[in-house]
Amino acid sequence: MERHIQRLENDIENFPKTDDEKDKFVEKLSGFSKHSREQYEKLSTMHKNMQKLYESLGSYYAFDPHVLCVEDFFGDLASFRTLFVEAVKDNHKKREMEEKIKRARLAKEKAEREKQERQQKKKQLIDMNKEGGENETGVMDSLMEALQSGAAFRDRRKRTPRNGDQSSCSPVSRWPGANHGNPTKALSVV
């Protein structure tokens, strides 16, 4: 580009003078040449600054700026950023999962402790009942405590739901032996 501008400037200087007033070649191209020279100087300065900055990037990131082109460098930088963001997300998910597992483990341990405490209280209550009249002091207090906390009721077996037709409520339909000597009715239902 420098050579082209220089040739244009030489052509304008060496152009023969004409007496024709309509010939505006020198006038128009002189303005263009001057404007082109200014633009070229700006671009040249910017290019030199860019090269200096790229060389400083090379020394900062420890690569040879003459071997690695700008496109490859910024491509590598973009892929590093993408992988880094993914790693941060993965680490965050892993940390959340570990915290969730820890909370579940702590809740399980707490439930186990509470269960053991309830069983121990119930065992103490049963032991007091077995001892009978040996140690009468505090029996009412421990019974009241067991009733208030619900420890006396916790180990009851839950009722299982009935299978089959629940619409009939007669004992004959549920228990064939409860028909009191009427075998035909019991056989027809069962």
UniProtKB/TrEMBL annotation:
Annotated SUPFAM superfamilies: Formin homology 2 domain (FH2 domain)
Region Disordered, annotated ranges: 106-190
Domain FH2: 1-110
Any Pfam family matching the protein: FH2
Biased composition (Basic and acidic residues): 106-133
Biological process terms in GO annotation: actin filament polymerization
InterPro entries noted in UniProt: DAD_dom, Drf_DAD, FH2_Formin, FH2_Formin_sf, Formin_Homology_Diaphanous_sf
Assigned GO CC terms: actin filament
Occurrences of domain DAD (ranges): 133-165
PANTHER family assigned to the protein according to its UniProt record, in alphabetical order: PROTEIN DIAPHANOUS, PROTEIN DIAPHANOUS HOMOLOG 2
Name of protein: Diaphanous related formin 2
Organism: Hucho hucho
